[in-house]
Amino acid sequence: MNSTPLKSLEGITSQNLVKEAATLAELVLSWKLAGQFKYDVPQCPDKVVVDIHVKEELNNDYWVARVNEFEEVPNAGVASLWKQLLQYSIGSTESLDTCHTVYEEDYIEEIFKHNLHPYELPEPASGYHCFTYLTELFYKLQWPLKVRRFCNLVHIVKSPDEKRAFVISLAVDPSLIPNASKETHFVDGQFTSVERLEYDGEDLQWLMTTCSDANGMVPGWIAKKALNSAIAKDVPSFMNWALKKKE
After folding, report:
1. Which residue among 4, 95, 141, 186 has its CA within the 20 to 30 Å range from the CA of 128?
2. What is the rounded average pLDDT for all residues in the chain?
3. Rounded to an integer, what distance in angstroms lies between the CA atom of residue 44 and that of residue 46?
4. pLDDT band at 214 (very low <50, low <70, confident <90, very high)
5. Which domains does the chain have, with CATH numbers?
6. Where are the transmembrane segments (predicted)?
7. Region 37-48: what's the mean pLDDT?
8. Which residues fall within 8 angstroms of residue 116, CB to CB, at 6 or more apart?
9. What is the CB neighbour count within 10 angstroms for residue 20?
């Protein structure tokens, strides 16, 4: 699992994807702690803390991860936050209309357009409800950078007891996307990511790790430097948006 786009989905199974994603997520806390961000959010009297971990070399890629334990959130608010994360950050396992990507476009300001196509993976992961689709995502970056397109296979899994869930996004070649855009005003980037949510009724953890390449004129060292804050700020963006969504 890395950011190199897959040119074929042959041999990709739900069971193996979830196994690989779970193994990767378990490694994150052993990676180098590269920074910490703190944000004001309405759910906390204190700032919410986002820890950033990095792995310089894994599967021939550079990986960065964010981890939230939400210790700053009052106990009374943790269960409500979990429901919001499960409903919106993970999204539906039944409908494209309420899937992860649809909600993600609402709270990640850089995303401005998506195209979704249903897909079915063989060998559904045991012990989970599963849902899969292909997506073509368009990101508007700061001037003078061009729009970036990212093509992915997205696999959503939720445990029936709603205590664990994953969003697994694999970079794929644009040729695998039905009716992919033929426009030329964008640059094709690529990313692979694993998002894991766990909640045992008391402790809540939101973990996301990714490897990526924006391509184009962005030097690799600049992209790496910007990645920490880019993935960290998605946490307060989600928390602020989800509270308004609830209201």
Report:
1. 4
2. 93
3. 5
4. confident
5. 14-246 (3.30.530.20)
6. none
7. 94
8. 96, 99, 101, 102, 133, 134, 135
9. 15
Residue 179, pLDDT > 70, answer: yes
CA–CA separation, 53 vs 28, rounded Å? Answer: 7
Q: β-strands 147-158, 186-188: how paired?
A: parallel
Give the whole-angstrom CA distance, residue 72 versus residue 39. 11
* Mean pLDDT, range 62-89, rounded to an integer: 95
Q: Residue 205 to residues 48, 68, 163: CA-CA distances in angstroms? A: 13, 6, 11
Q: Sorting pLDDT into bands at 50, 70 and 90, what band is 218?
A: low
Would you give the DSSP letter of residue 91?
B
**Whole-number Å distance between alpha carbons of 222 and 191:** 16
Residue 135's SS3 state is strand
**CA atoms 160, 20, 124, 173: torsion sign:** positive
Q: How large is the average pLDDT for residues 7-18?
A: 97
β-pair type (164-171, 61-68): unpaired
* Mean pLDDT score, 181-194: 90
For 156-168, b/e burial (b = at least 16 CB within 10 A) is bbbeeeeebbbbb
In sequence order, the 6+-apart residues with CB closer than 8 A to the CB of 44 are 72, 73, 74
